[in-house]
Amino acid sequence: MDLPPIIDSWFSKRGWQVHPHQRAMLARADDPATLLIAPTGGGKTMAGFLPTLADLASDPRDGLHTLYVSPLKALAADIKRNLRGPVSDMGLPIRIEDRTGDTSATQKKRQRADPPHILLTTPESLALLISYEDAPRMFAGLQRIVIDEIHALAESKRGDQLMLALGRLQRLCPGLRRVGLSATVDDPQAIAHLMARHPDPCAILEADPGPAPDIAMLHTDAAPPWSGGGAAHAIPAVLDQIRAHRTTLIFHNTRAQAEIFFHNLWLANDDGLPIGIHHGSLDRQQRERVEAAMVRGDLRAIVCTGSLDLGIDWGDVDLVIQIGAPKNVKRLVQRIGRANHRYNAPSKALLVPANRFEVVECVAALQAVRDGTLDGDRRGPGPRDVLCQHILITAAAGPFDADALYAEITSVGAYATLSRAAFDDCLAFCATGGYALRAYDQWQRLKQQPDGQWALRDPRAAQRIRMNIGTIQDTDTLKVRLKRTRGGKPLGEIEEAFAASLSPGDTFLIGGQIVRYEGLRDMVVEVTRRADRKPKVATFMGTKFATSTQLCDRILGMLRADDWPDLPAHTRDWLHLQRRVSRLPRQGRLLIESFPHDGNEHACIYGFAGRNAQQTLGLLLTKRMEDLGLHPLGFVATDYATLIWGLDPITDPAPLFDITALRDGLDGWLAGNAVMKRTFRASATIAGLIERNTPSARKSGRQATFSSDILYDTLVKYDPDHLMLDITREEALRGLVDFGRIEEMAERIGSRIDLIRLDRVTPLAAPLFLEVGRVPIKGSAEDRLLAQETTRLMQSSGLDGLSG
Amino acid sequence: MNSHHFVFCDTSLHALPSGALWWPDAGLLCVSDLHLGKSERIARRGGALIPPYETTETLDRLQADLTATGAQTVICLGDSFDDLDAAQALPDSNRMQIARLQAGRDWIWIEGNHDPGPTGIGGSHRQNHSQGPLCFRHIATAGAQGEISGHYHPKTTLRLRGRTVIRPALLHDGRQMILPAYGLYTGGLRSSDPAFARILTGGPVTAILIGPTPCAIPLPH
Q1: N or C: which end of chain A has fewer CB within 10 A?
Q2: Interchain CB distance below 8 Å, A803 and B216
Q3: Mean local confidence (pLDDT), A161-175
Q4: Domain range for B110
């Protein structure tokens, strides 16, 4: 396709060149699927839309032409702004609108009746659109779909849901062409496989990545602490950097860390530099205010989390600071790309390790960035909980034929290998619940009609299905408001479990301010402002990323060196000391240190398998130790090691690490485990077994639900072979349990286990004693604690004399 | 069985680990809010198809309590069925189960807001029932004396060395008592909810936490 004169002259009037990759996209406008990999600021979005603009410029017509999907509502709004400008400058009669959770009901209704030429939306809003009976009419004539930031979507179930929706759209509009826009990734082929209709080819275009980033570790006068993630030691140095730059983005790995850092930053901000905070738990208005201030250039720095990761154009950022180890080289590179949006100018970034071990990790990450090696974890086949939701969504739109739906689903890359039997199981689950006890014959959710088509038995179910669309699993959160006579200012959200742990008078941080918990009213947490007390920190769950396999390998490789001239003296001396008194972990071997400390025996196992796997290893090993009579008392895990304490020392590690025994232990252990229950809750919600939203609950606002743990326990007891338990197991193994990395580790080390007996704590093990998140070995401990506590409470209140 | 013994309105009572109330002198066992047939009702209304095993499980637990106590009288304190249609739709196996439990016992169904009428399943149906100093009804009435009710599904949260424990709870102020829900598929209302403060005005409130070893704590105001 050629560039129409109207667009060509718009470029030349500005003295701009059409980038080579933009031309290439135009040339491939008729390909069924194209993946473009380009750095931020490389005119990526324009490249995605150019074929659409060119087509509509030369052949103006009504109806939906191009669908744009991005992971963020804010990104859709941002693109709307950035696209409407050029389109109106060119004088093109193209209507561009966005549609997200924030769009008004009237606007949404109108969009379904009279869609714009270009509709900008999110995966969830698109899933909702295809659930309506009029979807075929709305999407009739759709030519193109542009998926932005596809690398981010491809890592999550949101991407799987999107691709299933695309399978549906493709059947409605056979000529639909797909375009994916991605940041730099390790395996473009994998993304191409996910996004193209199976088995269509998908060309991969790579734009000039621009100059290498200018990236270094921030030098601080104070040495980082032995453990923790606060990075308070770096506050003065970070403030110096903010002063020296126009706008600085300060990334954190968790929301809680961002809150604490922001709080500390303000305590030291003697110049009163304008600094804001932005993360996903903050109220939308608060976030929008920060975003607007940033676009205006009013802010010198923003403390943020992954909510700013994606490609929104926040204006003139000239420095990115990453607090804490990046855990993952790919994410680090993408964050660095946030700085310096001018094409062909290097982006500048500084890493701030929050503790001593993170210094090592940061240096390893810097090497990886320099070498250009990114990391990525393989995703398995498409998750079946998302598939179940898709079947329900399909049913909400109208009767369907099972054979046709199966064909449609296996045209989605991630589900290409789905067997017919597995599909039928999911269909049966959606229709009858799939229980061993045939209970719902009369009340099936989906019924097969005489013509063989499947349809909802009760049309009211369509509304309930739509109310529960989506795969994002926030834990249940409660809104936080300032207490006023009439509805105070909303501040954000905290997790229900955290709210439950609060008593009136407790203080916590939210949005950078300390607030005092006053009480719960109509499921809203009421707080007052408080400036005078040290806060009890909000435990936002956020995502705790595990250090990637590739980065762990690189660290192990680094530890093999004779000396580490790249490391600051404090960290270098620490490693030398470790080598002197014990030894350093080595690739292909497993180091276990055993030593007494504080009256207990300890074992430190350096598996370098990432946080989740080390945690699972702790649970499995303590269970094995319990069986072997070694009386374990508890453990704590980090990305690189698990520390176990108990009454007896480990003397023979080989039987403990027998992978077959570990795998057997996994089965028994998994069933009753909290990780499984959490995974079950997430998967059962996605699959439609648990409804987060029901019409009646919305009306009363009261909590009518019971714990998902009860459903889980009931299934385990009465229906252990149920599909939902199978899905839960699969999801847990590749998610929180991360057993795959334990198996990799076991394979790597074989029988090469080095058990070293020492008379005291070693330098490398010492920081683990300061780690939070110690896991006590469960047993009758809870009831014993409860009995002690109640006796104490009754005695101190004098009530014990009153009852029997 | 680890029951918790206490005295309420001069009556010696036990809170059982299951959430049932046992009155040995009268040979009477009281359970509240069984919500039998809940999964069927949700499905009937076009909702999720949740595991249909709660009725069997709840009745099994009741069987265990009856065996352990040898109770001669059983009071189900209302909301025994999730609705009247759920009672009608009860599978034969569960009807048999109930019939076995009822054999040789006095069985009283108190009406609840979910099951406000006869269900046609054995036993006698009443709005409320008085015996000795105690009166049994589904929803508490203000200022009543010696009243035992259900309806609210109370639960209590306790913090133990950084661990949060949430348990169903029996609440009483020496004058009125609110039982926790006995049914498997039942949520709960926090004991800090103002609803409880409005009802339990007779004195300091005690919460008996239900679990393997029921135990009492004073409820803060």
Answers
A1: C
A2: yes
A3: 96
A4: 4-218
